[in-house]
Amino acid sequence: MENEPVGTAVRVRGLVKRYGTKTAVDGLDLDVRTGTVTAVLGPNGAGKTTTIETCEGYRRQDAGTVRVLGLDPVADAAALRPRVGVMLQSGGVYSGARADEMLRHMAKLHAHPLDVDALIERLGLGSCGRTAYRRLSGGQQQRLSLAMAVVGRPELVFLDEPTAGLDPQARRATWDLVRELRADGVTVVLTTHFMQEAEELADDVAIVDAGRVAAQGSPEQLCRGGAENTLRFAGRPGLDLGSLLKALPDGTEAAEPLPGSYRITGTVDPQLLATVTSWCAQHGVMPDRISVERHTLEDVFLELTGKELRS
Amino acid sequence: MSAGTHSPAPGAAPVGRMIAAQTALETRMLLRNGEQLLLTVIIPSLLLVLFSTVDVVDTGEGKAVDFLAPGVLALAVMSTAFTGQAIATGFERRYGVLKRLGASPLPRWALMTAKTLSVLVTEVLQIALLTGIALALGWSPQGGPLAVLLLLVLGTAAFSGLGLLMAGTLRAEATLAAANLVFLLLLVGGGVIVPLEKFGAAGDVLALLPVSALSDGLRDVLQGGAGMPWADALILAVWAVLGLGAAARFFRWE
């Protein structure tokens, strides 16, 4: 490893990739710490797959540097391939092959593969039986592709949209496997456009928009940083909000969007909650249905990019 | 699966084991595919039986099967090394199989080696079957096995190069259509069943096609008892160099 910070599995700096006149990735920086799960989150067309496939050695960047396990994905491909597991967004299997047949084949290409029968059992692929790949359901194809990525016991896996098109049960099974990988010391990089997936699984989230990383950090950091929270309560209509605001810190806002329904926006901390309730007590108001709304990754995403994640 | 199951233990299998596994898989995929079997087994067998027993084409002096068997062997090589390999590889490219294998520990050269071995295994099965049928029809082959072997290897190399060139540059559907069309055209115009003399002056040009060179060379040895047909071997060698060279240069993996 040449001048790599200890514990960095993937380091991308200033990555640029163009297809003709279209710039798919436009100066992207990404760090993946060894042993963590990193979610690359963004809408379709944000440049997620291009970034991942550059790390996998499928594409050569137009500018910038990419280091995977300290190596160059293209120049050092032969050394990297056994160490890195890959799950493509789709395909990758002979249309006439059976699930167990393809998985056993992938296992044979590795020196110390997982027990194939146990992996088939673990991912519920036994139900595929003797069915050819092209006749498997989308969910079965996805799980086979995931199994192929992990069967060689890699140090690092890239999962491109691992749960796209899965039903909730299959999605949870995939999440469990990702957690097991992490627990066993495997570094995981996954792309997703499901907010909940990033929140549930990721130590780090990189929000990608228009070919750049708009923000990177833990879900908690991202939700805290810059995002304001909301306190809602119900009470008698027509309260004197000017009087309430005088009691609250500068920068806090108060509104009554519907008669008797109040919304306070600002840094919602215990102090603010106490101030609001004591103001209500002074004015003989019973604040009903008090709720504090934390900002979700979805809100953060909207603030950073001005876009809805799910289109 | 218990804790520690996934603890990293990366490593490639020994390359010999990888090639053996890949060859076995490729061969199984080929033998499992009905359309491929039609092309590689059923059509050559039917042509051999039909034209040996029914006198539709004038095959010149001697028994029809003595003329037809070498041509059908050439057709069998073409059906596997060119048509079958082009279609299979074209769809592997289309469905991301080549892409996915590209991220596995299997080196590209090992994948191509396995594909070639799988073609050779299939050809051995084809030749065994067709030879059996031809002998049953009264075929009396002449000549030496070494010349036959060399011609078959050169023919396989020539057809493989052309098949891979097609699979690696055209869309899968275009490869499917074109490979079948070329198979049909060469079946008729490549001296497989119809002697090239029937085409008049055009026959001299058609004689330069790889399937013509292979069927003519095999016929010189197996029917005429000739030694090594160097002219035909040279034609095949030129096709092999051009085809494999162009495939290596232009093949796109995705």
UniProtKB/TrEMBL annotation, chain A:
InterPro entries hit by this protein: AAA+_ATPase, ABC_transporter-like_ATP-bd, ABC_transporter-like_CS, ABC_transporter_ATP-binding, P-loop_NTPase
Keyword Ligase in record: no
Membrane-protein topology: Peripheral membrane protein
Annotated signal peptide: none
GO MF, one example: ATP binding
Species for this entry: Streptomyces omiyaensis
Keyword Secreted assigned: no
Superkingdom of the source species: Bacteria
Location(s) in or outside the cell: Cell membrane
PANTHER family membership: ABC TRANSPORTER ATP-BINDING PROTEIN
Domain ABC transporter: from-to ranges: 10-235
Keyword annotations: Antibiotic resistance, ATP-binding, Nucleotide-binding, Transport
Designated name of the protein: ABC transporter ATP-binding protein
SUPFAM superfamilies: P-loop containing nucleoside triphosphate hydrolases
Pfam family, one: ABC_tran
Membrane-crossing segments per the record: none
From TrEMBL, chain B:
Alphabetized InterPro entries for the sequence: ABC2_TM, ABC2_TM_bact-type, ABC_2_transport, Nod_factor_ABC_transporter
Record's keyword annotation contains Transmembrane: yes
Topological relation to the membrane, as annotated: Multi-pass membrane protein
Pfam families: ABC2_membrane
Keywords: Antibiotic resistance, Cell membrane, Membrane, Transmembrane, Transmembrane helix, Transport
Protein's UniProt keywords contain tRNA-binding: no
Localization annotation: Cell membrane; Membrane
Primary site of residence: membrane
Transmembrane segments: 37-57, 69-91, 117-140, 146-167, 174-196, 230-251
Domain ABC transmembrane type-2 as annotated: residue spans: 31-254
Family: Belongs to the ABC-2 integral membrane protein family.
UniProt protein name: Transport permease protein
Source organism (scientific name): Streptomyces omiyaensis
Phylogenetic placement of the source organism: Bacteria, Bacillati, Actinomycetota, Actinomycetes, Kitasatosporales
